[in-house]
Amino acid sequence: MTKILVLNGPNLNLLGQREPAVYGSATLADVEALCAKACDAAGVSLAFKQSNHEGELVEALHQAGRDQAAGELLGVVFNAGAYTHTSVALHDAIKGAAVTVIELHISNVHAREAFRHHSYISPAAKAVMAGFGVQGYALAIAGLVQLSK
Ligand code: DQA
């Protein structure tokens, strides 16, 4: 069965307690369960990771590129958290690994502070989703499956 990687960056381990007015009350474990359900419905398997470290995210994208080239992975739903707005390294990793990435944000970053309006991920991503709350993860999984048909 092909798989999808849902990759989460810094501070997303704090979901549920972190600014609930912005990110809601679901925990990262709840998000993983929601993603597992969406993957089940789409007939793909789920790999789910979170890291607060930029280099670990770079390495996860490299591995995802190898898995995709081997026909084992459809792509990555990637919430890079604050690294979205700062990381040339993650931009380069997506391009270098030639991996399909759906950029995902729980909040509508464009309705928030100006420093969240620029993304280094978007120019390297296949598609971008923001503002659907944690349900966006399920929508992005369905979208990635649709794109790969
Ligand atoms: C986020 C938005 C980012 O600006 C922020 O730094 C995050 C979460 C979101 O999911 O809405 O950590 O990516």
Our Rg estimate from Cα atoms comes to 14 Å
Could you report the average pLDDT, rounded to the nearest whole number?
97
What is the topology, as strand order, of the major beta sheet?
2-1-3-4-5
What percent of residues adopt helix (DSSP H or I)? 25-40%
SSE pattern, N- to C-terminal: EHHEHEHEEH
What is the number of helices?
5
Shape: globular
Task: Name the hetero compounds present.
Answer: 1,3,4-trihydroxy-5-OXO-cyclohexanecarboxylic acid
Strand content: 15-25%
* Major sheet size, sense and barrel closure: 5 strands, parallel
Low-confidence stretches: none
Number of strands: 5
C-alpha termini separation? 15 Å
What structural category do the secondary elements indicate?
alpha/beta
Helix and strand layout, with pairings?
Layout: E1 3-8, H1 20-23, H2 28-42, E2 45-50, H3 54-69, E3 73-79, H4 88-97, E4 101-105, E5 127-130, H5 135-147
Parallel strand pairs: 1-2, 1-3, 3-4, 4-5
1,3,4-trihydroxy-5-OXO-cyclohexanecarboxylic acid binds next to loops.
List its traits.
globular, 5 helices, binds 1,3,4-trihydroxy-5-OXO-cyclohexanecarboxylic acid, alpha/beta, single chain, 5-stranded parallel β-sheet, 5 strands, 149 residues
